[in-house]
């Protein structure tokens, strides 16, 4: 590029100081070639500006355009049925999606526990000649007393361990209830009483103690045995609910 | 509740001169004056597309006249716009007839031009040729020149907009693009004639 043009461009871009500008203006007046160059540059800048305005106006023109109305084809009825079918399918998918989402968010260990847990009712022993103070406390729903009596005993039967565990459950002490249930489940005493009760309620204690794997294992064990006392109760827990609990752990 | 800004004619002219209000002004031009032009052109054998194209050209020419202070408000904005549109359409009819177009086009009632309109019509062909030359430079040149000369952005901002290395690279590119454009213009007879007239004024 010739130096003259650089000065002319600087002049157009208002980069020259007043003195330089005045000198150049004087030179343009006297020099036809320089004047020609200057006018070409002016025309170029004018073209750039006009093209930009044109693009600006065009974009506004486009934004004001009304959307075109698409004419219905000859086989519109068939298409309408197809469209209606698609809409119904979409609505069903949406409803199913919402149901799945609701199920996923609403099912957890707590909700299953609340549905499944009912306090264990002792059969009436008050008429018996030999009274057990722990059983009496249990009957009277004195949960802390049940635990205290249980802890003071040296020889503990499965029944006593179970009642103490259930007293802990009533006090929401799931962590403390679990080893008491496990004492029964380990069968160390050779006593098989309260085994099925311990299996069912230990599953619930595991759920509330965030030991989901143990809980599910125990529930599935009961489910596999239709003769189990608590089989009717565990079948009410849906496999989907168990899967959700497993996924959420 | 939102209230639309409505400029009077003199406010509209002022709004066209200011970058921040230009878009609102263009919208008003379309909302208030496009329909008149459309009715006229479609009544004279033009299509909807013709009417839209002519009105766009009218608006661009009007903005150019206002920004160069050539529109002196001797007539109202609508009168001026309609005059430009009519003359642009008559011009287009003549061009098509020369090109052998057999469509039925009407030219019988050409009206008196408003002040400044004749210049717009006269420069029409030149402007079209020059725009084509600018477009032939490619997008990178067009963008850099538009950001500098239309958006008036400083070099620093152009660097960040177009992701160039530094301001010097942009400056060199801008010089080069502008020189390319003037070189192409020098080869165009219409441009040469225009420049010759300007020098001999």
Short description:
With 249 residues, chain A is an all-alpha fold. In chain A, 71% of the residues lie in helices and 0% in strands. In chain A, helix 2 packs across helix 3 and helix 8 runs parallel beside helix 10.
**CATH topology annotation of the largest domain in chain A:** Serine Threonine Protein Phosphatase 5, Tetratricopeptide repeat
C-alpha geometry of chain A: elongated
Instruction: List the helices and strands of chain A in order.
Output: HHHHHHHHHHHHH
Radius of gyration of chain B: 20 Å
Strand content of chain B: under 5%
Compute the gyration radius of chain A: what is it? 44 Å
Return the domain count of chain B: 2
Q: Please, how many domains of chain A?
A: 3
- Which parts of chain B are unreliable, with pLDDT below 50 for 5 consecutive residues or more? none
> CATH H-level name of the largest domain in chain A... which superfamily?
Tetratricopeptide repeat domain
Q: Give the averaged pLDDT of chain A, no decimals.
A: 84
Dominant shape of chain B: globular
| Helical stretch tally of chain B | 9
Give a written overview of the molecule.
- The complex is a heterodimer of chains A (249) and B (201).
- With 249 residues, chain A is mainly alpha-helical.
- Chain A folds into three domains: 62 residues; 34 residues; 140 residues, Tetratricopeptide repeat domain (Serine Threonine Protein Phosphatase 5, Tetratricopeptide repeat, Alpha Horseshoe).
- Chain A is 71% helix and 0% strand.
- Chain A contains 13 helices and no strands.
- In chain A, helix 6 runs antiparallel to helix 7 and helix 10 packs antiparallel against helix 11.
- The longest helix of chain A is centred in the N-terminal third of the chain and has 33 residues.
- Chain A is elongated and about 130 Å long.
- The model of chain B has no long low-confidence stretch (mean pLDDT 86).
- In chain B, helix 1 packs across helix 2, helix 2 packs antiparallel against helix 3 and helix 4 crosses helix 5.
- Chain B is globular.
- Chain B is 73% helix and 0% strand.
- Chain B is built from nine helices and no strands.
- Chain B is mostly helical.
- Chain B has two domains: 122 residues, no CATH class; 65 residues.
- Chains A and B meet through helix 1 and helix 3 of A and helix 2, helix 3, helix 5, helix 6 and helix 8 of B.
């Amino acid at each position: 590029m010739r130096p003259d043009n650089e000065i002319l461009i600087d002049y157009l871009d208002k980069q020259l100081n007043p003195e330089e500008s005045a000198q150049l203006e004087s030179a343009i007046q006297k020099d036809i070639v320089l004047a020609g160059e200057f006018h070409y540059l002016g025309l170029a800048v004018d073209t750039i500006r006009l093209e930009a305005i044109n693009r600006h106006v065009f974009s506004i023109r486009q934004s004001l355009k009304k959307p075109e109305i698409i004419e219905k084809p000859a086989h519109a009825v068939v298409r309408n049925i197809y469209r209606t079918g698609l809409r119904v399918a979409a609505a069903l998918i949406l409803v199913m999606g919402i149901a799945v989402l609701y199920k996923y968010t609403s099912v957890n260990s707590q909700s299953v526990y609340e549905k499944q847990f009912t306090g264990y009712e002792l059969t009436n022993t008050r008429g018996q000649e030999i009274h057990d103070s722990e059983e009496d406390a249990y009957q009277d729903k004195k949960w802390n007393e049940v635990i205290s009596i249980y802890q003071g005993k040296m020889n503990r039967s499965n029944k006593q361990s179970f009642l103490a565990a259930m007293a802990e459950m009533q006090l929401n002490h799931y962590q403390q209830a679990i080893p008491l249930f496990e004492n029964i489940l380990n069968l160390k005493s050779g006593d098989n009483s309260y085994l099925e009760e311990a299996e069912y309620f230990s599953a619930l204690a595991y759920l509330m103690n965030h030991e989901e794997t143990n809980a599910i294992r125990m529930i599935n064990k009961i489910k596999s045995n239709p003769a189990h006392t608590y089989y009717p109760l565990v079948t009410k827990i849906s496999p989907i609910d168990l899967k959700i609990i497993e996924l959420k752990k | 509740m939102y209230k639309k800004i409505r400029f009077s004619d003199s406010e509209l002219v002022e709004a066209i001169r200011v970058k921040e209000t230009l878009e609102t002004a263009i919208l008003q031009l379309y909302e208030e004056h496009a329909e008149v032009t459309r009715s006229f052109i479609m009544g004279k054998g033009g299509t909807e597309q013709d009417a839209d194209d002519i009105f766009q050209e009218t608006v661009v020419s009007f903005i150019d006249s206002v920004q160069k202070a050539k529109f002196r408000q001797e007539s109202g904005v609508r009168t001026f716009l309609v005059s430009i549109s009519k003359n642009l359409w008559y011009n287009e009819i003549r061009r098509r007839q020369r090109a052998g177009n057999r469509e039925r086009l009407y030219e019988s009632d050409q009206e008196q031009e408003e002040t400044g309109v004749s210049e717009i019509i006269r420069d029409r062909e030149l402007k079209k040729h020059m725009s084509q030359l600018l477009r032939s430079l490619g997008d990178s040149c067009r963008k850099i020149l538009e950001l500098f000369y239309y958006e008036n952005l400083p070099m620093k901002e152009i660097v960040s907009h177009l992701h160039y290395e530094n301001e010097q690279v942009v400056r060199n590119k801008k010089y080069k693009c502008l020189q390319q454009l003037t070189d192409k213009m020098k080869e165009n007879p219409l441009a040469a004639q225009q420049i010759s007239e300007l020098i001999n004024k």
